[in-house]
Design brief:
Blueprint: E1 26-37, E2 40-51, E3 55-59, H1 66-73, E4 83-91, E5 94-95, H2 103-109, E6 110-113, H3 124-134, H4 141-151, H5 155-158, H6 171-184, E7 189-193, H7 201-214, E8 219-223, H8 227-233, E9 236-241, E10 245-251, H9 252-257, H10 262-268
Parallel strand pairs: 3-8, 3-9, 6-7, 7-8
Antiparallel strand pairs: 1-2, 1-4, 4-5, 9-10
The structure holds adenosine-5'-triphosphate.
Adenosine-5'-triphosphate is lined by residues 37, 42, 60, 62-68, 80, 82, 225.
Length: 273
C-alpha cells in the first residue's frame, strides 16, 4: 500500500535527536545510514540531523558520497537498480524508507535542483506550471507561477516573455527557472546538487543570494565542491571524506575556523582532496 503522507501527516514534533545538532528543529535525520551500490559501500554509518529553514552544505572530495546522501533524502536512489539503503532516514520523524511512503509524494515535499539546469523544452510559463498541472492544482495558476518566479529572482527578467521557450534563457536563468519550478509545488525542503557549478561567476553569485533568501522559508541542503561557497552561504556544514564517512558536522563557522578533526582541517586547508 502506498499513501501520500501529505503536509502535517508526519510527526512534526519529533525530538528524539541525540545526533549532533543545535538550534533550529531537526527536519531530516539519518541514523546508521549505509548505502551500497552492489557490493561497493558508498556511505557508512551516517548520523546527521539537518535543521529546518537553514542552509546545510555537504562538502568533501570527489566520490565521498555527498550526492548519494542527498539522493537518499527524497529517495532518488530508488531509481538506481543496484543502490541499497540500510539504517534510517527520517523526514519529520517518519522513516522515508517505510513501505507506506510513496516516493512520488515524498518528492513533492522534498524538491530537487540538479547540477545542470534541466528545463523542459516548453515555455517559461509551462515549466513553472508543470508540477501544478500534474497535481491538478490549476486554481490561481497565474498567481502561483508569478510568485514562484519572483521567489526565484527571475520574474523581472522574464515577465514580458513567459511564452518564450525556456531553452532560450541563459544557463543562470535556466537554473533559476528550475528553482521556480521546484518552488511552485510548495515543497518544504529543497535539495541542490552543485546547483552553480555549471554557471559563470555572476550567475553563481545570483544563485548564492537566492539560496540564502530561500532558507528563510525552506530547508535547503546543498552539495558543493566549492568550499568558499559553502562558507559563504551555509549555516551548517557536513564534511564527508573518502570511504563515505561523515567526519564532522557543525556550524559552518566552526568547521572553517576551528574544526575538531585534523582530517577536516587538512581538507579545508587544501592539504588533500
Ligand atoms: N549509480 C551508481 N552506480 C554505482 N556506483 C555509484 C553510483 N553512483 C555513485 N556511485 C559510487 O558511489 C560513491 C559515491 O558517489 P557520489 O556520487 O555520491 O559521491 P560525491 O561525493 O557526490 O562525488 P562527486 O563530488 O564527484 O559528485 C563513488 O564511489 C561512486 O563511484
Amino acid at each position: 500500500m502506498t499513501t501520500d503522507p501529505g503536509k502535517g501527516g508526519l510527526d512534526e514534533n519529533d525530538d528524539r535527536g541525540s545526533v549532533a545538532q543545535t538550534g533550529a528543529g531537526t527536519v531530516i535525520e539519518s541514523r546508521d545510514l549505509d548505502v551500497f551500490y552492489g557490493e561497493t559501500q558508498a556511505l557508512q554509518n551516517i548520523d546527521l540531523a539537518i535543521p529546518e529553514n537553514q542552509v546545510t552544505a555537504m562538502i568533501g572530495p570527489s566520490g565521498c558520497g555527498k550526492s548519494t546522501f542527498l539522493r537518499c533524502i527524497n529517495r532518488m536512489n530508488d531509481l538506481i537498480d543496484i543502490a541499497r539503503v540500510e539504517g534510517s532516514l527520517t523526514f519529520k520523524g517518519k522513516n522515508v524508507y517505510d513501505t507506506d511512503v510513496d516516493p512520488v509524494a515524498l518528492r513533492r515535499r522534498i524538491g530537487m535542483v540538479f547540477q545542470h539546469p534541466n528545463p523542459f523544452p516548453k515555455s517559461i510559463y509551462d515549466n513553472v506550471a508543470y508540477g501544478l498541472r500534474i497535481q491538478d492544482k490549476t486554481e490561481n495558476m497565474d498567481e502561483v507561477v508569478e510568485r514562484s518566479l519572483k521567489k526565484a529572482a527571475l520574474w523581472d527578467e522574464v515577465s514580458d516573455r513567459l511564452d518564450d521557450s525556456a531553452l532560450d534563457l541563459s544557463g543562470g536563468q535556466q537554473q533559476r527557472l528550475c528553482i521556480a519550478r521546484a518552488i511552485a509545488v510548495d515543497p518544504e525542503v529543497i535539495l541542490m546538487d552543485e546547483p552553480a557549478s555549471a554557471l559563470d561567476p555572476i550567475a553563481t553569485s545570483q544563485i548564492e543570494d537566492l539560496i540564502e533568501e530561500l532558507a528563510t522559508e525552506y530547508t535547503v541542503v546543498i552539495v558543493t565542491h566549492n568550499m568558499q561557497q559553502a562558507a559563504r552561504i551555509s549555516d551548517k556544514t557536513a564534511v564527508f571524506l573518502t570511504g563515505g564517512e561523515l567526519v564532522e558536522f557543525d556550524d559552518t563557522d566552526k568547521i572553517f575556523e576551528n574544526p575538531e578533526s585534523q582530517r577536516v582541517e587538512d581538507y579545508i586547508t587544501g592539504k588533500f582532496g
